[in-house]
Amino acid sequence: MIQRTLLATSIKTALIASVAVSSSVSMSAFAAEETAKVERIEVTGSRIKRADMETASPVTVIGEAEIRAEGYTSVDQLLQAQTSMAGAALGATSNNGSDGVAQVDLRGMGSQRTLVLLNGRRMVNSGSGADSAVDLNTIPVAMISRVEILKDGASAVYGSDAIAGVVNIITKKDFEGFQLDLNGSTTSESDGENVELSALYGFNTDTGNYTIGVSYTERKGVIQGDRDWTIGGGSSIIPEGTLGGKQWLTDEETGESSWGDRQYGYDYTQDSYYQTPNKRYSLFLNAIEEFRNDITLNADFIYTKRESHQMMAAQPANLMLDVCGEPGVDPVNCMTLDQSMIDAGIKADDRGRVNFRKRMNDVGNRVYEQDTDTIRASVGLTGDLDIHTGFVWDVAYTFGYNRADTWVHNSIHAGRMIQSIYENQDAWFYGGNITPEMADAVSYVETTTGGNDQHTISANLSGELFDLDAGAVGFAIGAEYRYEKGFYNPDPVIVAGEGTAAQQDPTAGDYNVFSIYQEISIPFTESLTGEFALRYDDYSTFGKATTWKVGLTYEATDDLMLRGVAATGFRAPSISELFGGNSGSYDYLTDPWGNEQDAQILVNYTSDENLKPEESESLTLGLVYSPSYVDGLSLTVDYWSFEVTDAIARLDVQKGLNDCFAGDQVSCELFNIGPNGNLENLTNSLTNVGSQDTSGVDINVAYTFEALGLDWRINNDTTYLIEFVQDGVDYTGEVDGMFGAYAEWRNNFSVQLGTDTWNVVYFNRYISGMNDVYDDYATGEEVTDKVDSMLYHNISANYFVSDVTSLTLGIKNLTDEKPHYVSNGSDGGTSPEVYDTIGRQFYAGVSIKF
């Protein structure tokens, strides 16, 4: 038998109590759920079922009550609020290029390096097609019992993608009765409304439990221009159009017109979102059925439909027009440089062309729309074998299906637009007075389809092998087969390169992997326990991979446990990385030759079928302290470090530009940079040349006590980032619109007080000041500005009207803090994935259960 000590009990309490606000409710729910099951449970990070929660790996638990108290209506919101998150994960505030997807970015190491599980089994990657991560929109908050975040490398247990850690979402089960929840929110500017309506019904039979639920969530948009702190955009592509960089101008006093320098930059923030609209419809169920022969069936099912859209300013058309009379130019399909243009210095380049740019406001704003359907179904059988103290076996099949239709309304067909310009030169150049018929002729609706499929079959056996003096030796052994498929089919106009948006090729591919794994837990002494895991994976794409994990826990005293884990990990190349078609991306870059008019420069992204897996090493060292002389107090401190080698990455284009400009011909050829800084074919390929080195310290202090006739719960989570170095560049303590934020300090503090019938929660979130590093266009030198720290305040109250009804009220960003300016901000002069761009929000909810 595994012996229970005072420390074991303390650690279990401490780990569960590490939940922040409202953890009292979530703890009781957690304990009740687990007590109702079996003596041994499976803890995230291990397949060995055990009686206690203590392991060598640090796990953060976020309970249902905390989720509700903080007013979260999406999984990405609650995850990104954790101090262990960094970077810039896609979510509700991602307007440009997100396709409505929401992801998690643990440690800022990339969403593709965090594994997302549902009830301990993989979720299908989802989004617009051939995706490399899970779209968290597919998991409704209404079905969540708790979320467990394993902040340790776990490839030896779960396989690929668990380099940075694991997010395991546990759904509600063993539910009896009917529960109806209504939650809503709005901003102090009376926009950005959110509403969530869900119903849950569960019933017991003589042999099992069945729980079914439905959920509807709607999120409305917030326009960037509706916030007075927004810094307007300054695009060189304006509605009036420019030819050779010149604009057709009319003197207000004389009424005379002529070609002159462009007078202004177009402000695109009036037509872009800070919060993107979204509707989600979900159906979910859990089933547990016990058969007479001691075999239990457990199954879960989710179906989610997401309807989302984003909006941006009208399509910018950036075209090269052939000039009549130039060598090699078709004398019919061309434009004529008249005398006024020649007098203004407009002339053809060395290929007989001239640049024409126009913001297509005549057609309308670009409206991006997605309609996705995601199904995830898993069914398993579990039984006992009468061997030693009892072995537990289980087999399971998990099916994942994701399909997406996406549209871009008011897209522009470049070929038809060029032809229209040749045929109607005066209308296009002199004031841009094109007719509605001309606008309709050059516009179209861009249509794209995509999807992801996943099939997983697994078998596992666990139990106790034999007894040592200090306790039983536990083990788990198993095998798994997984098949992944993905595809993405851009609109034929985009594939042909005939649109004004970047050209992109289709993506299609699949692979399979067979895995075997084993774990063992050995109590060397009553104080020292070792955990060992080994996994072997065989991929159809690149071959074999072997990973291992060694963990130790040492009970130094009845109050103090020391723990540590060393592990290796890997990430297999995704379908889009292996089989992705060439695609264009407008990256923020500085042109050292000064030829480009905009900071966003088109780069051709390419994939590689010969990519190898990423490899990693991780180390976690920590302690759990729960002093017996202070009842309810617990402290955890964990040092962590991750090193990723052979990372699948793209080269540093800016460095390539700078090196080519300095005369390095190898860089010019590597990035396809033409003579005199010609960037028309600028290319960046995926290779196994990347690296990541990051380390830091996590600290949690939790204290539960009674005072003044009230129950108190205080929780403080701190993450100190020692370093984050990627591809040789140190991003520690920096913020940028492209890669997000790597603050040295992040801290979440909460205090809850109340009684059995009510409680009030105060929560604050701190992000330390960071450096904003950018290139000065005027001097060409690197400049560093300081971005101040940020402290957000939230407050909420819960009132239990009766045993049936409870109410929640709350305010997020109580002091209405404005986001900080970021020079290279991705939207509105800031980084919306880092700072709150919505402003103060009020939320309320009611829950009825009977």
From TrEMBL:
Domain TonB-dependent receptor-like beta-barrel per the UniProt entry, residue ranges: 373-814
Domain TonB-dependent receptor plug span(s) in chain numbering: 53-166
Subcellular location field: Cell outer membrane
UniProt motif TonB C-terminal box: location: 833-850
Membrane topology: Multi-pass membrane protein
Signal peptide: 1-31
Stored Pfam families: Plug, TonB_dep_Rec_b-barrel
Domain of life: Bacteria
InterPro entries: Beta-barrel_TonB (IPR000531), Beta-barrel_TonB_sf (IPR036942), Plug_dom (IPR012910), Plug_dom_sf (IPR037066), TonB-dep_rcpt-like (IPR039426), TonB_rcpt_CS (IPR010917)
GO cellular component: cell outer membrane
Alphabetical UniProt keywords: Cell outer membrane, Membrane, Receptor, Signal, TonB box, Transmembrane, Transmembrane beta strand, Transport
Family, as annotated: Belongs to the TonB-dependent receptor family.
Protein name: TonB-dependent receptor
